[in-house]
């Protein structure tokens, strides 16, 4: 029987410690060639200035496809700008195992990947975090980063002051009036916006900062300016970064080492004290892994 797992069930079943461990494992597998994953297909939705992404992946124990929409107008409707559905199948038979609401799964696994990268690429100890963006990903990143580092201050900025105030109240953060105010002196900076033009300038970054660049998933969109992109660049997938990331393509930055190579021990991490940008495009195998964790938890709950 094919399970249907709604958003409430996904939130209950997906446990962050398991997800962090899963992301470390599959990112290493992706870089080692143990995952089958084509580049995602993207279709424009002109009337809404939206996008539909289709993302299949095959990993050990899971075959999955995610359909995800990016609808900028949803913020005004009181809906998430990112909505997703994941179909999980048996990799041996192709039989559908579950259809699940992937909205929370996407938000938490995206944040978990940023947290895994921050854990690998930033020194231990208390951190000041700047969140450029005040939507669902800002909230999930606040949760995930606190799981890997003590956060002494969490600063929130976006273009909408009302959203900033609401997000800051929900995550125990500080509302900032500008992106520069949020970024100056921050140890970790997360760009989680729908921007198509840079919102983060390299001149604002503290030496040795870690940047998780999460938004701008299209070749002509950017969140970071050239100065920010001139720092050491680590990517989730070299192929994806070279074909899909406007931050990489338009700046002329070289898509360097993959985070999975560092996690797998085949490439060294950047030197201590370096300013590092981690460009995350959201890999389909991350969704397959997260969906499998949710499915296994649902089956265990039924027993």
Poorly predicted regions are: none
Give the % helix: 25-40%
Order of helices and strands: EHHEEEHEEHEHEHEHEEHEHHHEH
Radius of gyration: 18 Å
Whole-number count of domains: 2
Main beta sheet:
7 strands, parallel
Tally the helices: 12
CATH structural fold name of the largest domain: Rossmann fold
For the record, give the distance between the C-alpha atoms at the N and C termini, rounded to a whole number: 15 Å
> How much β-strand is present in the residues?
15-25%
Structural class call reads alpha/beta
CATH homologous superfamily placement of the largest domain:
NAD(P)-binding Rossmann-like Domain
Strand order in the sheet with the most strands: 9-8-7-10-11-13-12
Query: What integer is the average pLDDT?
Result: 96
Instruction: Name the overall outline.
Output: globular
State the CATH class of the largest domain: Alpha Beta
Under the CATH scheme, the architecture of the largest domain is 3-Layer(aba) Sandwich
| Secondary structure tally: strands | 13
